[in-house]
Amino acid sequence: MARDGHVVPVDPQTTLTVKKKKQSSRNWILLDCTGQGTVLDADKYQIMHRVQIHARDLRILDPLLSYPSTILGRERAIVLNLEHIKAIITAEEVFLRDPTDEHVIPVVEELQRRLPPSNAVQLHVQGDGKAYQGRQHDGEAEEDDSPFEFRALEVALEAICSYLAARTTELETAAYPALDELTAKISSRNLDRVRKLKSAMTRLTARVQKVRDELEQLLNDDDDMADLYLSRKMNSSSPVSGSGPAIWFPASPTIGSKISRASRASMATVRGDEDDIEELEMLLEAYFMQIDGTLNKLTTHLPGLIVH
């Protein structure tokens, strides 16, 4: 039975197969810089102490509360609330809420695949079932050389933009036949069907708009973008604060775990020039364009459903 601080190791090489149960606001998964995952049953005070954020920031991630899409840069963390993706990203770890949610599981899997740096030692399984250690191919290095927090942020942005684009396509697929039927025959059934689709489009448009607005706000403020560069801030600050490391979730060895003990790659030297902001700006711009395209599709490609 789970108690405060109890941990359950998760194999980063496999899909989460835990049955979805009643969601708890204490349910998190912690992913480190090697992609190793640990499911946590932690209260808000433990989380706040670990990542050093305020209670008001943590409330943004409460699944029982409704907050607009938000990406906040704090001294040692990025607080990210994008639809079902509610995460806290640090320079070395990602805390993701509700890891057994059907929409969150693919995000966990993608983080496990892309968080390890290009020079991290990976565990591979041969055809005979025996494991051996190897490194990622050189061709992947360029993609993985970004700071840890950027890799984690990109996974979240990619997932949410793809998710909203898919919902838009589903709506479009349902809308045109409904409009055709209404044009062919005006009936209470057909009118009701179109009204429901119109309401769904209005709600979806508002959700897409919120994500787009948040990215646009970030892109318009260099200081806000600089706040997201956690590796740079960590590199420029003193090595250890007087408070010392937080002592909380037991650093238990892998009890019954099949997690490979891949060696941690040393952090790459953090550059301190303006190119770092430009790198983040390019990342945000790419997903801004994607979400803007989705919004444009909702507001122009479905003219029969737009509420004027």
Automatic annotation (TrEMBL):
One of its GO terms (molecular function) is magnesium ion transmembrane transporter activity. The keyword Transport applies. It comes from the Eukaryota. It is a multi-pass membrane protein. InterPro entries: MRS2-like (IPR039204). GO terms for cellular component: membrane. Transmembrane segments: none annotated. Gene3D superfamilies: 2.40.128.330, Magnesium transport protein CorA, transmembrane region. Residues 194-221 form a coiled coil. The keyword 4Fe-4S does not apply. Keywords: Coiled coil, Ion transport, Magnesium, Transport. It is found in: Membrane. Magnesium transporter that may mediate the influx of magnesium. Belongs to the CorA metal ion transporter (MIT) (TC 1.A.35.5) family. This is Magnesium transporter. It comes from Cucurbita maxima (Pumpkin). The gene is LOC111499377.
